[in-house]
């Protein structure tokens, strides 16, 4: 089982070839590819975490689609002052497929 821990959109994700991952919005259209920096590589029994070795590793992902996350409702209220605020937010996301770890 080969997998890698990569830095993606300010977070760390565990990925292997063929995985579908949802990240914060990545520039580029559907069908384009980009690389993710590897932080750790596990290849069967061998674990690679040295910076020199990880610089040679390329984790390639293909953009499948851009989408938006679920709506989050933000409400603020202060008693006896008439202050009420209701806001909503939907995060811009991108669904990607991990195509290779080499």
UniProtKB/TrEMBL annotation:
The membrane-spanning stretches of this chain are: none
An annotated GO cellular component of this protein is:
cytoplasm
The family note in this entry says: Belongs to the bacterial ribosomal protein bL21 family.
Q: What is this protein called?
A: Large ribosomal subunit protein bL21
Keyword Nucleus attributed: no
Q: What is the lineage of its organism?
A: Bacteria, Bacillati, Actinomycetota, Actinomycetes, Micrococcales
Its GO biological process annotations read: translation
Looking up SUPFAM superfamilies in the UniProt record yields:
L21p-like
Quote any Pfam family the record assigns. Answer: Ribosomal_L21p
The task this protein performs is described as:
This protein binds to 23S rRNA in the presence of protein L20.
């Amino acid at each position: 089982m080969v997998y890698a821990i990569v830095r993606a959109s300010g977070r760390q994700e565990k990925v292997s070839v063929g995985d579908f991952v949802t990240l914060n919005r990545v520039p580029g259209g559907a069908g384009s590819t980009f690389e993710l920096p590897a932080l750790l590589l596990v290849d069967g029994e061998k674990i690679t975490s040295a910076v020199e070795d990880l610089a040679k590793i390329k984790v390639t992902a293909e953009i499948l689609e851009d989408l938006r996350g679920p709506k989050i409702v933000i409400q603020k209220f202060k008693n006896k002052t008439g202050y009420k605020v209701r806001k909503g937010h939907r995060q811009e996301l991108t669904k990607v497929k991990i195509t290779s770890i080499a």
